[in-house]
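Observation: inputs received (chain + 3'-deoxy-3'-(L-threonylamino)adenosine).
Thought: call the complex predictor directly.
Action: predict_structure
Action Input:
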Amino acid sequence: MRMLLIHADYLEYEIRDKALKNPEPISDEQRKGRLDEVLAVFISVEKVDETNPEEVVEEAVTEIEDVAKQVKAERIFVYPFAHLSSELAKPDVALEVLKKIEEKLKEKGYEVKRAPFGYYKAFKLSCKGHPLAELSRTIVPEEGVSK
Ligand SMILES: C[C@@H](O)[C@H](N)C(=O)N[C@H]1[C@@H](O)[C@H](n2cnc3c(N)ncnc32)O[C@@H]1CO
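Observation:
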């Protein structure tokens, strides 16, 4: 899994078009979304993550929470982003992983939005520009360790 984490004044998106034949079904209210004072997390779920998605979810949540605490962000935007890797996981696996990351962050008390999966989206992002405002993380499940 590849993550780009941006501490931002805001992130807003608007659905433009389908990018997959069967994108995630969404309500009208999900066609647009915005969070202010947010840690935006752009995530590419990778092929290697398919060997142990549970472990990758746990590690991603740990990394995201670590950065959120450092930058004192209470809101997190989980944003599916297929452009951080050339070895992408299948869409059905990727969507499940992203949903679980969202769920676990909410359980930890963060206000979380997740941008819809499988669409072209316009977005606006205002990066804060401080030294920890732009970070990346790579998560790889342990070789062949399936729980
Ligand atoms: C396109 C660009 O504007 C938009 N931002 C976009 O990336 N759309 C992606 C993700 O929402 C999702 N998607 C498919 N596979 C994956 C994956 N392995 N990991 C993450 N997202 C995925 O499906 C879309 C097409 O790849």
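Thought: report the result.
Final Answer: The longest helix spans residues 53-71. The first strand starts at residue 2 and ends at 18.
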